[in-house]
């Protein structure tokens, strides 16, 4: 919540920006009894704001004057000129010159490829199957509340996460919100082709968009969840339409800049989604760069020092992501049978924040 509050205070987000709050992360397992919500041996206090990426983008976009925003134009190359400027080449052959170019183009970043062509994405051995369900479709709207649940299915490996976000219209009233859920499912790299082939037989190289998953695969995954989740959460999955899949990758980098080209957010060091660090990385990359340019020496000197700090922090978050990944994907205990002491001990021994790590929104 600290990062979220700072965005409000700095007028980067509108007052009244629609969001939900999660204050608890229970670890849940399928109970041997008829308890539809499962067995919760222990809960971890958290403080997170949850919202739609689209709403965030709209808030950011309207703060950029139209004359400074060029959309629907694909960048295909960037190169330095002798005069200390960067030339951007667009797909149509048009070129533009800038003093500094920042790529914030996500996990398949062109900017990263240009700066560090020797690096490549590392597949982590599992996919994230995702969906959203209108709260109104569930008869029991009390169970999830302000919790972000983590549900283990240790016989499979992986786990499911579920929490509430604002409705499509931004409403945060009970009954008008959305269940946002994701099931982490181990999948050998040789099997990725099956997960990423859509209902028309088209093979995708990255995420499979909402609604394009093959019906037989979606049915198989829903049955898998019905067999391993508490009934309440299995119902959420079963009722969800337009599900989608993304393979999970990470990448480590030796830096965040080369010459006068820099990387922001997931274009830089890419970490597992369990860290919930996307906003944290992006806003800190940008704020640190502004500060470095205002107080440093030349652009090159400022960029080099900024890159050093971002790289150090990115590696810390990647280390944290690997710890959480190991704990939740590969070594999660059976929350159906563990007690409070054992579950708390498992978490605290498995996940340790690095020394000196400053994480504004922290578990």
Describe the protein.
- It is a single chain.
- Mean pLDDT is 92; it is low at 358-363.
- The protein is globular.
- It starts with a helix and ends in a 13-residue tail after the last helix.
- It has helices at residues 2-9, 53-61, 110-115, 192-195, 215-228, 231-239, 278-295, 299-330, 340-350; strands spanning 20-29, 39-50, 75-80, 86-90, 95-98, 101-103, 122-134, 149-152, 159-165, 178-186, 244-250, 257-258, 261-263.
- It has a seven-stranded mixed β-sheet.
- With 363 residues, the protein is an alpha+beta fold.
- Helix 7 packs antiparallel against helix 8.
- The chain is 31% helix and 23% strand.
- The protein has nine helices and 13 strands.
Question: Can you lay out the helices and strands and say which pair or pack?
Answer:
Elements: H1 2-9, E1 20-29, E2 39-50, H2 53-61, E3 75-80, E4 86-90, E5 95-98, E6 101-103, H3 110-115, E7 122-134, E8 149-152, E9 159-165, E10 178-186, H4 192-195, H5 215-228, H6 231-239, E11 244-250, E12 257-258, E13 261-263, H7 278-295, H8 299-330, H9 340-350
Parallel strand pairs: 1-8, 6-13
Antiparallel strand pairs: 1-2, 3-4, 4-5, 7-10, 7-11, 8-9, 9-10, 12-13
Strand proportion, as a percent range, falls in 15-25%
Q: Please give the order of strands in the largest beta sheet.
A: 2-1-8-9-10-7-11
**What is the helix fraction of residues, given as a range?**
25-40%
The total count of strands amounts to: 13
- Please count the helical segments: 9
- List unreliable stretches of 5+ residues: 358-363
Report Rg: 22 Å
| Structural class assignment | alpha+beta
The main β sheet shows up as: 7 strands, mixed
Question: Would you tell me the overall average pLDDT?
Answer: 92
Oligomer state equals: single chain
The SSE order reads HEEHEEEEHEEEEHHHEEEHHH
Distance, first to last CA: 11 Å
Name the overall outline: globular
